[in-house]
Amino acid sequence: MTDFRTISAGGRNVGVHKDLRVPMRDGVALVADAYGAADSEPRPALVALSPYGKELQALALTMPPQRRPSPMWDGCIEAGDIARVVDQGYVHVIGDLRGSGGSEGEHIGNYNAGGVSLGQDAYDFIEWVAEQPWCDGRVGMIGISYFGSMQLLAAAERPPHLKALFISGGHYDFYETTYHGGIMWFMPRAAREGRGGDSGWAFTDRVKSRMLETVSDEQVRARVAARLADPDVQAWPNLVHTLHYPTNHEAWFDIITNEFDGEWYEERNPINLAAQVEVPVWLQIDQGRGWTIDGTIETFNRLGGPKKLTIGSYPPMQSRPWVEEHDKMFRWYDYWIKGIDNGVMDEPAVSVFVEGTREYAEGAEFPPKPVEHRPLYLRTRGRLSAEPEAMDATAAAPDGFYQAPLTVTDKVEVLRWTTAPFEEAVEMIGTGAAHLFVEIDQPDTNLIMRFWDEAPGAARQLLTSAYLKASHRELDLELTTEGNPHHPHTRAVPVEPGVVEEYVLRIYPFAATLLPGHRLVAELSNDEPLSDEHNALLPPDAFHLPVGRPVTHKVYRDAEHPSRLVLPFTKG
């Protein structure tokens, strides 16, 4: 029996069917809550699916939205503004994925990649919702991040009653979700295990490791031994613990033991499924989380049906409970689900917020304006210049820094190069590349770059970032173009200590106008500062695995070693 009740939310009466049992084709039942009007008039439904727990999502009815750095910000409350969904004439259906919350079944690996396809479950869930007396047969989806990835997984299965998608802040490239330029990112651990501003997955039993379930014991032992031999892993207690005791952290164990891209991540990668999606899709993402913007743009380019792309303003993290972008979402769904001609399809397909001018650039694709990739060279005395360095290495000695492991210091060394103040406004939109000629004295290191708009008086805002593990420096030459490098990340090639290598870092997509008097600042380190203006806006676990060995870096920027940034300057 389901429980129907009427509750008060924000001065509105909302009816809710609690603990609905939704049958899957293999006999497993998922559990959901359906929020609608207190009357029984059927409405279109917006479906939200995740492993974070429907009861956690219900806090959207009672908790005011929190922004980082609020300690009350919980990254897992992502299903949307329930009261507003109902007020706009939709039923909000929030379901627990198999194995989580009150739902039956088991979950093997990330996104259940070792078990039943989440897209298959979503198909069955959507079709069941469409048949209910409180639904008029028209269904869309709602939610950010994990909920957003679920939308593409569902649409690729082509459920007949799914009419459109609006995805904000989705994760699409499953390798890049955790490894940025080959460097491990810790935030997915927080989302799964519940740490540092996240409640974590709501699985009723453990999440089974896909590695432990599908790979031989001998292969698992070999993978574990190889990871434990990595000095970066050796120096991080959580990783050592997980590798020795995987049943306590099985989903995280799978990620740690698969540090290269390939079949493990590509099998159900939403980007690979995007071409199968036929319903209209609006993708939205905010600036400041470059890797997610990258995947969003790639997904947009692969979609074949009606589509829109909006890249919004900094800062990178939306409120929790998530309430932003609902105006756009309801315009989209009112058009494609309710059939209201509100002009949304008469507007440009791509809209990008340009930091600095705080205006939108619009067009049919990304970048929305023609761009020309031009270099800014790293010069002596910390300068960035359009002119290359004329002196050779004997006169233009390399910049350098020594970074001790964070086990023995809390100081992160940073090299900095800056332009002169711009005399005229300079606009850049798109991806870029950093070509760095670097010598290190170890077989590996991290190369982390961050790019800032520095105003007079030194106030600054992050524009974008770039990451590359030195042993992942190989380029995919078929995909790489000027200002748009691609790395396969399918193997590690140790660096020969003492040899100068050219490293090409991918600068994640961004859009900014540097106003007169402002400077562009490029910073290089091999770890991340423990606290600064940008990191305060991210959850506590949103940093990358530090280098676990002492490394001396020498950055050459002379006539024979033209270290440079290649940036997307707009034309005209």
Automatic annotation (TrEMBL):
<dbReference type="Pfam" id="PF08530">
    <property type="entry name" value="PepX_C"/>
</dbReference>
<dbReference type="Pfam" id="PF02129">
    <property type="entry name" value="Peptidase_S15"/>
</dbReference>
<protein>
    <submittedName>
        <fullName>X-Pro dipeptidyl-peptidase</fullName>
    </submittedName>
</protein>
<dbReference type="InterPro" id="IPR013736">
    <property type="entry name" value="Xaa-Pro_dipept_C"/>
</dbReference>
<dbReference type="InterPro" id="IPR029058">
    <property type="entry name" value="AB_hydrolase_fold"/>
</dbReference>
<feature type="domain" description="Xaa-Pro dipeptidyl-peptidase C-terminal">
    <location>
        <begin position="330"/>
        <end position="566"/>
    </location>
</feature>
<dbReference type="InterPro" id="IPR008979">
    <property type="entry name" value="Galactose-bd-like_sf"/>
</dbReference>
<dbReference type="InterPro" id="IPR000383">
    <property type="entry name" value="Xaa-Pro-like_dom"/>
</dbReference>
<keyword id="KW-0378">Hydrolase</keyword>
<dbReference type="GO" id="GO:0008239">
    <property type="term" value="F:dipeptidyl-peptidase activity"/>
</dbReference>
<dbReference type="InterPro" id="IPR005674">
    <property type="entry name" value="CocE/Ser_esterase"/>
</dbReference>
<dbReference type="InterPro" id="IPR050585">
    <property type="entry name" value="Xaa-Pro_dipeptidyl-ppase/CocE"/>
</dbReference>
